[in-house]
Specification:
5-stranded antiparallel beta sheet, 17 strands, disordered N terminus
């Protein structure tokens, strides 16, 4: 998966305005949000930054750069941004904002986008400040007041946008140990485990995991898993098994297939060779759109792969996380998992990996019933400039690999971000 989803937060606040001074104490939460939007639109970054704390402050440099790239696409005369609900407590306030952005030219394959977001504000001695942004699935989603201090208060200095490990193996590993932590001091409470990833131990504010290349049993085994696997064979908004074109393509691919492993290989081969990968080309399209366009980035490839697997009778799901190509630079990524030989095995046409290996970290698994765009957006908002991943050990087979200090890998991560922003407007 890419960071394109998080950048769209800007579209919810791009409204016409003029530069004004920093907010006085008397401004209401709605007025603070309006002032922030106006300052961002006018390019007065330092004054807008003064209205942020916590996660909003952590992400501010990213928001500024993304706005510079995306602002020319937004037709501010036709776009609308409306606060439809407010919930206020003593220290926190949350606003529900509905945004309808109309584009002058196509952006991520879209002419317009409708978004619903929760904007969380925290009361400081000098007034309300923007603290956190959260995408909501729909306008009926209830607002929940935050508690405690804003996340991100413990962050010191600016972190790279994507996790960058200082040490990395010189050659490709089949097994790695990685230490994960959040710079804002939060703990990684929910953390998925499976055949290619397991928790070794939890420490204060961090978790040590092992990732590996799994072995695949050739025969499909679902004994004792029938009911639990039903959600992973079901149709959904993103994985549309009612699509006649999808069913026809799955039937074509599976003609003469020997077993479950062969079915997965055929789907993987089709997507990896037929799909045109382009960073930022779309925004978590559903399987119907992905099959007809055969273009997108890792999220569309993952959705199409999972849908074709389900249409072929193989339980599947979509995984969100981070992957590293080399040099310890981890990028936001999405891929699919197939249930084979009694275990979940990663299938990743975007990075040309089946089964997926040690060079990735799973953060969330999606059955398909969720709003995948919302899940991906919020995961990126939580992780950008916040998640640290350090490679602590690596092996190829039983051979331990030396770790080498990397130089210039932060610049590589930066170039990836620039490629994403370039791709969204092409």
């Amino acid at each position: 998966m890419s960071v394109k989803v998080a950048t769209l937060w800007l579209l919810a606040g791009l409204v016409p305005g003029t530069a004004q001074s920093a907010a006085p104490v008397t401004l209401s939460p709605r007025e603070v949000l309006q002032r922030f939007d106006s300052l961002m639109d006018a390019g007065v970054a330092e004054q807008a930054k003064a209205l942020c704390v916590g996660s909003a402050l952590r992400m501010f440099p990213f928001l500024v750069e993304a706005q510079q790239k995306l602002a020319p696409f937004v037709d501010t005369a036709l776009s609308r941004d409306t606060v439809i609900e407010e919930k206020q407590g003593e220290a926190w306030c949350v606003l529900k904002a509905v945004s309808d952005a109309v584009f002058r030219k196509r952006l991520m394959g879209m002419d317009r986008i409708h978004m619903v977001q929760a904007v969380h504000l925290y009361r400081q001695p000098d007034g309300w400040k923007l603290a956190e942004f959260e995408e909501l699935s729909d306008e009926k989603k209830p607002l929940v007041l935050r508690k405690g201090k804003p996340a991100g208060e413990k962050i010191q200095g600016m972190a790279p946008l994507f996790p960058v490990s200082r040490m990395a193996p010189a050659s490709r590993a089949t097994r790695m140990q990685l230490k994960l932590s959040l710079r804002n001091g939060d703990s990684l409470r929910e953390f998925p485990q499976g055949s290619g990833q397991k928790i070794l131990r939890r420490e204060q504010g961090s978790v040590l995991i092992q990732t590996s290349l799994p072995l695949i049993a050739p025969d499909e085994d679902r004994k004792g898993n029938g009911d639990s696997l039903k959600p992973y064979l079901a149709t959904s908004t993103y994985l549309d098994l009612t699509d006649s074109m999808l069913l026809s393509k799955a039937g074509e691919l599976q003609k003469g297939a020997m077993d479950g492993l062969d079915r997965v290989r055929r789907v993987y081969r089709f997507v990896s060779t037929s799909f045109h990968f382009k960073l930022g080309a779309a925004l978590f399209s559903n399987s119907r759109e992905a099959l007809r366009n055969l273009e997108g980035d890792c999220s569309e490839a993952a959705v199409l792969t999972a849908a074709l697997l389900r249409a072929s009778g193989v339980p599947s799901r979509v995984v969100l996380g981070f992957a590293t190509l080399e040099r310890g630079v981890f990028i936001g990524h999405a891929w699919a998992e197939a249930f084979l030989g009694g275990q979940w095995i990663g299938v990743d046409p975007a990075l040309r990996e089946f089964p997926t290996g040690a060079q990735r970290v799973m953060l969330k698994r999606l059955s398909g019933s969720e709003d995948m765009r919302v899940e991906a957006s919020n995961l990126m908002l939580q992780a950008l400039s916040n998640l640290d991943i350090e490679i602590t050990e690596a092996w190829t087979g039983d051979k331990k690999l030396p770790l080498i200090e990397q130089h210039g890998n932060a610049e590589e991560g930066r170039r990836f971000f620039e490629d994403v922003l370039k791709g969204v407007g092409e």
